[in-house]
Amino acid sequence: MSSTRTLIRGGLVVTAADEVHADVLIEDGRVVALAAHGSDVAAGWTAARTLDATDRYVLPGGVDAHTHMELPFGGTFASDTFETGTRAAAWGGTTTIVDFAVQTVGQGLREGLDAWYAKADGNCSIDYAFHMILSDVNEHTLKEMDWLVQEGITSFKLFMAYPGVFYSDDGRILRAMQRSADNGGLIMMHAENGIAIDVLVEQALARGETDPRYHGEVRKALLEAEATHRAIQLARVAGAPLYVVHVSAEEAVAEITTARDKGLPVFGETCPQYLFLSTDNLAEPGFEGAKYVCSTPLRPREHQAALWRGLRTNDLQVVSTDHCPFCFTGQKDLGRGDFSKIPNGLPGVENRMDLLHQAVVDGRISRRRWIEIACATPARMFGLYPQKGTIAPGADADIVLYDPHASQTLSASTHHMNVDYSAYEGRTVTGRVETVLSRGELVIDRREYVGHAGHGTFVPRSTCQYLD
Known about the structure:
Blueprint: E1 5-14, E2 19-27, E3 30-36, H1 40-43, E4 49-52, E5 57-60, E6 62-67, E7 72-73, E8 76-77, H2 82-91, E9 94-102, H3 109-120, E10 127-133, H4 139-151, E11 155-159, H5 170-183, E12 186-190, H6 194-206, H7 213-218, H8 221-238, E13 242-244, H9 250-261, E14 266-270, H10 272-276, H11 279-282, H12 304-313, E15 318-319, H13 352-361, H14 367-381, E16 399-409, E17 428-438, E18 441-444
Parallel strand pairs: 1-4, 1-5, 6-9, 9-10, 10-11, 11-12, 12-13, 13-14, 14-15
Antiparallel strand pairs: 1-2, 2-3, 5-16, 7-8, 16-17, 17-18
């Protein structure tokens, strides 16, 4: 029987719950048992393959609950396919992504979902799941929400931004929230007042303010906070839970904190770009700032302290990437002379685990909190736990051997994302992924990619596990 067995010996197993020097036994793609390193139990284990984790962390694979592979946006497509994007994710220690299937206005949810199944099927080197973007809320699509929940698509994203593309008005948002209150789904909200932002965009361009930095100036923090407040109140009226994506502003964190202090089922996500980058990047000379155009936008540096505090106090629960890469040459430069035409999005799926480990090294968060916000909580939030997000008997053997002492410099010249720049170019971080297992199969073996497209499978999800 030992032929399907893998044994990981001598590492420090770090989960959201504890840290223990333990050996990990894997069989048939799952964790079978953990035992203290050097114990009689562990000493008796045999396996066809033994991985030496001495001086390494043994981590659950990362769960990135917010990616956009091949997303159509502004007349182009995100530059990572499911094949290149999931490979890059694995290099960064992420073993599950939850991507966004898109409903096009005038079509049903089913057509959008089927298109995303087709894009991903047979192309992923790690496991994947889907959220559904609702662009057109009507009687038919509200019914479809119920069917999707049954199928394991248990979260739905709505936009208060992007009028004419993804935007939903308050009435449509309320209807979708009411439906999710009944069917157990979770509404995810892009909270920015898009109607007001469009006025400010028009006025800025009329004044000749066309550079990338104006993207950050028109998408005001107050308009993120206002939309966050409004989304929370609509969710209260509907009796529905709410998950606010890519929170970037101190004022928006305050709205979420106030709601959570009332005991409301309101959750918040932020992203590495808001924790490590700022409007200083958007203001880089020439057209360089275009590399950093995303929405919600990067904020002045002083907002970072509120985001870190929110992660420590659990007013923000999850760090996802909102990975949505566009090449600087040929895509971002569609917006030369008009910042509103720069495709919105940053590459990051490969950098999240390492940047957050740097935050551990810097004393901003603990090791267990790192795993909580990057693995366990996203898995629980989106109905994947304990299959994903932890190392425990019965869990999928999605495991990362991590060298906490290695130093690396982030760069487009060495990353594996299909994009021609790095948002973190030249930044040195401590810690590096060494070996990655997905369901017990090696994907990265001592810094060599040994995975293959088609190993990753679709994972249906249960409903949010914080609402039971």
